[in-house]
Amino acid sequence: MPPPPFGSIVIAGLGLIGGSIALAIRERWPAARVIGVDRPAVIAHALGGGAIDRGITTITEARDADLVVLAAPIRQNLELLAALAAAPRDRAVVTDVGGTKRAIVEAARALRPPLPFVGGHPIGGAERGGFAFARPDLFDGRPWIFTPDPGGGYDEALGRLETFVRGFGARPAVMEAGTHDRLMAFLSHLPQLTASALMEATGREAGVEGLHFAGRGLVDTTRLASSPADVWRDICATNSDAIGEALDRLIARLTELRADLPRGGAVASLFEDAARWRAELMKGRD
Amino acid sequence: MPPPPFGSIVIAGLGLIGGSIALAIRERWPAARVIGVDRPAVIAHALGGGAIDRGITTITEARDADLVVLAAPIRQNLELLAALAAAPRDRAVVTDVGGTKRAIVEAARALRPPLPFVGGHPIGGAERGGFAFARPDLFDGRPWIFTPDPGGGYDEALGRLETFVRGFGARPAVMEAGTHDRLMAFLSHLPQLTASALMEATGREAGVEGLHFAGRGLVDTTRLASSPADVWRDICATNSDAIGEALDRLIARLTELRADLPRGGAVASLFEDAARWRAELMKGRD
After folding, report:
1. pLDDT digits (tens, 9 = 90+) for B55-94
2. Rounded Cα distance, B182 and A194, in Å
3. Which residues are A276's β-sheet partners?
């Protein structure tokens, strides 16, 4: 087995993603040392499960790490990044796993002295968040997007990160942060907001009794509606322009449909287009 | 085993629902004779699979049935109902399985002489339509709503229909057609239109390459987007007022979210409400 690309790894935030990274390191890079940063209760849980070697409650306690992974909600990641920069140390590579990339890439670019930061976004996800739902195979076969600062000169760090996540079965890809944010506004943020808005509107109208008559369609369409509010408030705040455009696009489609309901011509044509895109989406998936 | 509540059953339309009814009859009421009405290719498929005893291509060929089930798209069901009324026969009970109920209940009420019609709507559904996806357990544990005309006097027919579908494991419920249509505008029609509009808007923006970066969230939220256009054009046309109100409600929520993206207060509060409704929706489901 090759040596791990990073010998000592600090993971700040042991939720679904951070916890799954810890478990995946255990499986693929067992020689690496893993230090978790979180509240004492989560640390105890992660230590008990053998996911981490050591737990700390403040990122600045971490010393001599080769890699720091910021895996908290985005605003917290921005604070953690500032805290790391304020306490200069050996040049650990720093990455994050947040769902938007421009805000943190710009924050890292502004640091003096600079940190070797490469933004990252694993496309995984599960119905529920938190360490209890973490799994070592969460990233298997899934994309992991990196958004290095084009002028940053961290090619060597990027190469090590790509090796690191390939070890989890992920497929690394490189993208400009703005391209990432616009794409994710449609692929991820719009479905999330739509699912939550749909669940709220439908629940309020149907009530507890009415929901008993819901079929599998509503159940699938609103699966995302159990996502944690704090994570999504931060995503919305750091990608509001792109999400706004995506919402406008959806609202325009729904408004067209509404006008055409009695005749149904636009309904039929939208359904045909949607079915074609759905078939594209499902190519190569189960 | 008790005798079947209907000894001879005509099913007009052997798609997902009609085909699943035929298969469920085979399992639960094997003494019943099943006659399918559809195109010759579908008839051949259903005969080959043993789902029906006999196939015909025109509903008026059916003679001496105890029950006629209209299982085509809604507009076709309306035409089939008129054809049945124009060719008077023994007083077979007539029901349908369409996703809206006011249009067909009103059409049945206007018939002279009247037919013993009781509208029905099994809440099942699967990712894809057509006989190829029919299954005998499609209705197991799921509601099956009946919407008898309050002044129709078909209590005995309703009772036999309830026994009939209980045999498939369904849970019969009785509801006024208008109540049904309004409830389904939110529980079923709104999720369907939303999923299709979301898939179309996202596919068009992301393109084939971009869709490779989609996570499980988009996949779940757009599952309904492969639904058949013809079925849904008819549902929209026969429930446009209620669906219009449901769309207005969703558009209003999305517009509020859009305005609040940078701050995120409305986002957080909507997410919390949505997560509560989602928990209600999932009570008693897997």
Report:
1. 999 998 877 899 999 999 999 999 999 999 887 666 799 9
2. 21
3. none
Residue A206 makes CB contacts below 8 A (sequence gap 6+) with: A213, A214, B183, B186, B187
**Sheet with A171-174, edge to edge strand ranges:** A54-56, A33-37, A8-12, A67-70, A93-96, A117-122, A143-148, A171-174
DSSP state of B60: G
Instruction: Judge whether A211 and B280 are in contact, CB under 8 Å.
Output: yes
C-alpha closest to that of A180 among A231, A232, A141, A145? A145
Instruction: Give start and end residues of each alpha helix (H) in chain B.
Output: 16-28, 40-48, 74-86, 102-109, 155-166, 177-184, 190-211, 216-221, 229-238, 240-260, 265-282
Residue A225's CB: how many other CB atoms inside 10 A? Answer: 28
Q: Which residues of B touch A236 (CB under 8 A)?
A: 257, 260-262, 264, 267
Q: Which tokens sit at A231?
A: 């994570």
Strand partners, A173: A145
Cα of A27 to nearest chain B Cα, Å: 23
Write out residues 124-163 of B within 8 Å (CB-CB) of A.
Answer: 124-126, 142-143, 145
**Residue B232 distance to chain A (closest CA, Å):** 8
Write out the E strands in chain A.
8-12, 33-37, 54-56, 67-70, 93-96, 117-122, 143-148, 171-174
Which ipTM value was assigned to this complex?
0.92
Residue B173 CA to residue A207 CA, distance in Å, equals 17
Residue pLDDT, tens place only, A111-128: 988 889 999 999 976 667
Residue of A nearest to B279 (CA): A226
* Cβ pair A221:B223 closer than 8 A: yes
* Nearest CA distance, B96 vs chain A (angstrom): 18
Answer yes or no: do A267 and B183 touch at CB < 8 A.
no
Q: What is the pTM for the complete model shown?
A: 0.92
